[in-house]
Amino acid sequence: MRRNTNVIGFAVASFAVVSVVVITKFSSKGLYRSYFSSYAGTWTTFPGVTSDPSSLQTNSAFPSFIADNRAKNRRDEKLERLEARLDKARALIWEAGRTDNSTLALEDTDYVPHGDIYRNAIVFHRSYLLMERLFKIFIYKEGEPPIFHNGHCKNIYSLEGIFLSSMETDTKFQTWDPNEAHVFFLPFSVVMIIAVLFDPIIRDKAVLERTIVGYVNLIAHRYPYWNRSLGADHFMLSCHDWGPRATWYVPQLYFTSIRVLCNANTSEHFNPKKDASFPEINLVTGEIAGLTGGLPPSNRTILAFFAGAMHGRIRPALFQHWKEKDKDVLVYERLPEGLSYDEMMKKSKYCICPSGHEVASPRIAEAIYSECVPVLISQHYVLPFSDVLNWDSFTIQVSVSEIPNLKKILLRIPDDQYVKMQERVKQVQRHFVVNDPPKRYDVFHMIIHSIWLRRLNFNINR
């Protein structure tokens, strides 16, 4: 299997194969041994998965090796056809990056990507349309709610539950035939594992290990697809702070699989060549209607605004320099009585979005919803959909060392530049909104597109 290290390079508008990383396939026997050794050869059961994979036997009336070979040959032929279609998709996207853009404009009944919010609008559009036409996802059916196929759809981790729910009801991308799938979804919810199994007094994080190792063991025993790619064409998704930790316990899940995470922190081994970042969206009540909108630029009387708790490494510096110290840069740890958080966002020019305990912050999506230009203060954070979106065109990015000069930085921005940025915030909004059911180009489809790009980044047959 080869992994193309430059496939996701929208910045250079191409999907060229510049270099490859060869991943050696292990025998399934060796792979199973590494997973089961810590359990002394015993099968570990956990909520939602109770069947022993060893009980699944080929019909003894027919020689098993003949049945296995025939099935393998059919799978190999389907895989070759699948990879051939992906090769054609790669070529078409590569062409879009090399040809005069004016000759490649594609019609679209809903929306045609355009403008500075994209690294390359034509390349993105070509890739998106190919994704809609070709991409297929198989969801493993093993596991039962509330830990699998289910999640909370309100609070700060809402998008994890919403994605799980949307995938279960999706008919466009989901396939029931695993041999037609380009990727395989591991439908566990880290939020629900913590909510159901984690004891806040004992604080035994091993519940993550038992649940996730057990689940991967089950699907690796029951299906051939995990071993075929060492998990490279499998993905998990989590918005929980412990989402990255949840993948530690299975080496291939951590180092090889596609991890779709809110906390996309490169200092914690998030790898943007194979992992995908998605936004943290705090749906306080679970309602998704009426969240967007704000005052026009001329009526935004507050220069910059932030309200939130002091935690993490960045916010103490913000509070030290700006907490309730300036009439234009309004920074609060606790919002004064009588002020509405939503209204303050909607009448501010700039909304300050500092990282807290983790790099991701729901304030980025809140700012975009309020049509307020986000001021990003973070370290080691891979921004959501950054292989497609040009974040520099609609945000201000400030380093921690520049926090004392925050007001000067914002005041130096000319009015006409601010107005253009605010218009781009309104344009990019469509890629962050949650719809039920999902609509084209919304946050659900942007997450799917991020996974599609990572799948284009390798060929299982090579």
Give the biggest beta sheet. Answer: 5 strands, parallel
Q: What's the order of the H and E elements?
A: EEHHHEHEHHHEHHEEEHEHEHEEHHHE
Count of individual beta strands: 13
Beta fraction of the residues? 5-15%
Q: Roughly how many Å is the radius of gyration?
A: 23 Å
Uncertain residue ranges: 7-62
Helix/sheet category? alpha/beta
**Helix count?**
15
Query: Can you give the mean pLDDT?
Result: 86
Name the overall outline. globular
Strand order of the largest sheet: 3-4-5-6-7
- Helix % is 25-40%
| Beginning-to-end CA distance, first to last residue | 4 Å
Question: Features of this protein?
Answer:
single chain, 462 residues, alpha/beta, 35% helix, 11% strand, Exostosin GT47 domain-containing protein, golgi apparatus, transmembrane helix
Describe the structure in your own words.
It contains 15 helices and 13 strands. Helix 2 packs antiparallel against helix 3. The chain has 462 residues and is an alpha/beta fold. Helix 12 links the parallel strand 10 and strand 11. Strands 3-4-5-6-7 form a 5-stranded parallel β-sheet. Its main location: Golgi. This is Exostosin GT47 domain-containing protein. Keywords: Coiled coil, Glycosyltransferase, Golgi apparatus, Membrane, Signal-anchor, Transferase, Transmembrane, Transmembrane helix. One of its GO terms (molecular function) is glycosyltransferase activity.
Outline of this structure?
It is built from 15 helices and 13 strands. With 462 residues, it is of the alpha/beta class.
